[in-house]
Write a structure and sequence with these properties.
mainly alpha, 0% strand
Length: 110
Amino acid sequence: MELNSNLRYMPEIQSIAAYLRQMQFKRKAFGGCDEESVLDHISQITLQYEAVVSALLLSTEQSARQIAALQAQLEQYRQAQADQAQAIWYPPAPQGPVYPAWPAQGGYYG
């Protein structure tokens, strides 16, 4: 049995593959394999796969939470970047007079 290259690194999948390679069914004197033996093996394989699926679901949920947190953080960074760009392109209006007031005696030339 050849495993998909992505699954090869999961120890649980390797353990199931090893179990499948080594399993042997009890034989009946007439009619092939003992049904109870076959059902026991199927039960064992099912339990092992259920454990793998549960672990994968948990990992998927954790990844989804991490992705959501990173997306929220990215949105905060984008908003901060937009605020900074807004401040650069449209600086706040100056407070107070823009030009100096005329001196009290006759203006600048007088």
